[in-house]
Amino acid sequence: MEFKLEAHRIVSISLGKIYNSRVQRGGIKLHKNLLVSLVLRSARQVYLSDPCPGLYLAGHPGAPAAPQQPEESAAGPPAGWGEPPPPASRAAWPEPEPQPERPAVPEVPRAGDAEPAATVTAAGDTLQGGEAEAPEAAWRRVEGPRETAVGAGGPAGVSGVCPEGPEAARGPCGCPAGDEDKLSAAPRVDRCLASRPAAAEPPASPPVCARKRGAAGVGGGPADCPAPGSTPLKKPRQNSEEQPGGAAAAAEEEEEMETGNVANLISIFGSSFSGLLRKSPGGGREEAEGEESGPEAAEPGQICCDKPVLRDINPWSTAIVAF
Amino acid sequence: MHCSVKECQCGLCDLSEPHSSHLINGNTADIISTVEFNHTGELLATGDKGGRVVIFQREPESKNAPHSQGEYDVYSTFQSHEPEFDYLKSLEIEEKINKIKWLPQQNAAHSLLSTNDKTIKLWKITERDKRPEGYNLKDEEGKLKDLSTVTSLQVPVLKPMDLMVEVSPRRVFANGHTYHINSISVNSDCETYMSADDLRINLWHLAITDRSFNIVDIKPANMEDLTEVITASEFHPHHCNLFVYSSSKGSLRLCDMRAAALCDKHSKLFEEPEDPSNRSFFSEIISSVSDVKFSHSGRYMLTRDYLTVKVWDLNMEARPIETYQVHDYLRSKLCSLYENDCIFDKFECAWNGSDSVIMTGAYNNFFRMFDRNTKRDVTLEASRESSKPRAVLKPRRVCVGGKRRRDDISVDSLDFTKKILHTAWHPAENIIAIAATNNLYIFQDKVNSDMH
Predict the structure, then answer these.
(1) Residues B98, B116: contact at Cβ < 8 Å?
(2) Torsion angle in degrees (nearest 10) through CA of B242, B180, B246, B295
């Protein structure tokens, strides 16, 4: 368990370094970034391979975690890891989550797969295929309720909850361990990830992640937790200046939000040097180019794409381009 | 050993004041980034983060002033590189001097190569100690004379003048590298040199600036597959066809330029299998080689990784013949060192003239020397407080628990901001130059003492 926590911490630190390297004078240093990505990959492997169901629950507000734990372990480690929590635990989720969503939860990953680039995590699922699929998928299912909220509720439709979806998917980018520096990574990734159809991007933020906020206690209470700027994720991508404000607020609520977010962030940034992107026919090339534009700050001739172009590249590639 | 401390280049402080305040004030341009003796040891060049090069010259020992036993004084200072901006990539190119290498002296002038991340420059350093006087048409100040006052012709003569050192850029080798240059090395043929960046090594001719030959290219077709980068490289001191380069994975590759135009295939691969008991998240980082140096004999290579220095025999690829622990007590602190970025520090290493002692830097302004013959090692400190001019350096000890002697430093009280990354050893004598942030310490060993 300690390995997991340490791995988690190392992942957060690594992501912060990767972000900071973008703003360093002299350009991105290939050697250092390579080493950081290797550490990230090692930490991620430990993080994801350690069958520790408790940690899954650590991602949720305190109270429900405890009672759920026995159920989780009863399901056995793989199941506890891979399966969505039984409906009983879902009930423990704060009110804001629309009831009808819940039964749909187990379907989410599949549905997510089918949706055209609906969420990063979903897309990642397709991409990642063989690589540590079970644990990865497990993480995505953790995200499930929020994804579902989006899928079912539509962008602006569902109250409070829904914005969580794509933001949650993008969330990892935005909520590292309470470090304001890293939080500002969010707008970058957001910018590129936001190439997704605008429909998937709900208007700014009801504080949905209230239920992810440990600080708010169990689910942050039935009422929407009034956390202004609850997550930097929600901020419109142009408003990167708002990050500090959001960062401060989000900084309070680390562990709960991060656990799942970090896993996704790991997925985006960690696996191979350029991020774990699989080579998909269209994505492969973009990834390669995107990756080059990352660490070496673009060979001559390559520039970071505009949004309209990014919309057509799959979200994984866009994450790498952002990087 | 006695010490002569060179003052900080900032010009703001005097010798008696500690220097850490400069870093607090943000004056980082004076941080020394490279140190190199020339082939005779008469000159010592330093480069700093602000793109400046300062050359020191050893004063000849004179009987009149026996106490100034060949001390080094400033000989010349010039601005080698300026910050640049790459508009295509929207990148600022740092002016920090990454490496300086002297060319063997072939006439009265001295030449050196200095490089930043992208551009290498060849500088010629000449002395002028005479000037012509007695021109017919111009007077001493250069004004035209009134011809009516000129009654006779004279032949101008050379008269001595105060020594003036002139430095001029003779070549600029630009646009050869996409990635950051980490090392340069002059070939023993004195005509070519190589420059290495993270993924490629180029061979240049000293007289030709508009083209270079790529001799090593480890860039993968798909950058996703990148697993290692080049960290340092050097030509063999005697065989002009051989060079070595080190990688971030801890391996060394010896290449022979006669074998092929592109030396991607190594002639020899020097690699030590990893000790599985030491595996951690940071194993890869600490195995990355930060410096490689051929011995003067050409038979051995010295490598530095984060925690050790290793001596390799060119005839044995399987493992180093000697491994010395520089600061193994840091092994349990790798996570903190990762957090504060210290784990990425690139320490250099150096041979003494006879290849019997090796030296490398560490933290807390400590540097370490290892005698290969007696297997003894010593830790010394480069600091104002403990090094007054002509004082004898006292060995230091880092205690790692267990019984602690009086002057021991505990691991937790080490100052990781005071790091000695760059050191140089005089090619023939026991004179060492230690760069401690923005101070240069020169230690001379007048007595031929053995390590204690």
Answers:
(1) yes
(2) 60
Instruction: Report the residue count for chain B.
Output: 452
The 10s digit of each residue's pLDDT in B284-317 is: 999 999 999 999 999 999 999 999 999 999 999 9
Confirm whether A317 is domain-assigned. Answer: yes
Pick out chain B residues at pLDDT < 50: 1-3, 7-26, 448-452
Q: CB-based contact (8 Å) between A317 and chain B?
A: no
User: Residue B426 — φ and ψ, nearest 5°?
Assistant: -55, 140
CB contact under 8 A, B226 and A38: no
- CA-CA-CA-CA torsion sign (A11, A16, A17, A18): positive
Contact A35 B344 (CB under 8 A): yes
CA distance B403 to B399: 8
Number of domains in chain A: 1
* Residue in the structure block whose two tokens are 């790529």: B214
What is the CB neighbour count within 10 angstroms for residue B434? 24
3 state DSSP class of A40: helix
Alpha-carbon distances of B297 from B191, B268, B314, B354, B441, rounded to whole Å: 21, 19, 11, 8, 27
Q: What are φ and ψ of residue A292, in 5° steps?
A: -65, -35
Judged by CB atoms closer than 8 Å, whether chains meet at A298 and B285 is answered as: no
H or E stretch covering B123: strand B120-133
Residues B387, B443: Cα–Cα separation, whole Å = 10
Q: Nearest Cα to B191, choosing from B208, B176, B167?
A: B208
Q: Which of A34, A46, A296 sits opposite B248 (nearest CB)?
A: A34
Residue of A nearest to B344 (CA): A32
Interface A-B, measured as beta-carbon pairs within 8 A, has a size of 94
Cβ separation A300–B88 shorter than 8 A: yes
A5: contact with B, CB 8 A cutoff? no
Whether the model clears a pTM of 0.80, i.e. scores above it, the answer is no
What ipTM was assigned to the predicted interfaces of this complex? 0.87
User: What angle, 0 to 180 degrees and rounded to 10, lies between the N-to-C axes of helices A120-128 and A164-174?
Assistant: 70
Residue A31 to residue B90, Cβ atoms within 8 A: no
Structural domain boundaries, residue A47: 1-51+305-322
Residues 6+ apart with CB under 8 A from A311: A195, A196, A197
Residue bearing tokens 């005509």: B191
Asked whether residue A35 is domain-assigned, the answer is: yes
Instruction: Suggest the residue from A28, A31, A317, A323 to mutate for an interface test with chain B (most B CBs closer than 10 A).
Output: A31
CB contact set of B204 (below 8 Å; sequence gap of 6+): B120, B173, B176, B192, B193, B194, B195, B212, B213
Helix (H, G, I), strand (E, B) or coil at B92: strand
Q: Dihedral angle at the C-alpha atoms of A62, A66, A72, A78, nearest 10 degrees?
A: 60
Contact of B18 with B24, CB cutoff 8 Å: no
Q: Are B209 and B173 in contact (CB under 8 A)?
A: yes
Is position A262 within any domain?
no
Does residue A17 fall inside a structural domain?
A: yes
pLDDT tens column, B318-374: 999 999 999 999 999 999 999 999 999 999 999 999 999 999 999 999 999 999 999
Pairwise CB contact (< 8 Å): A26 & B94: yes
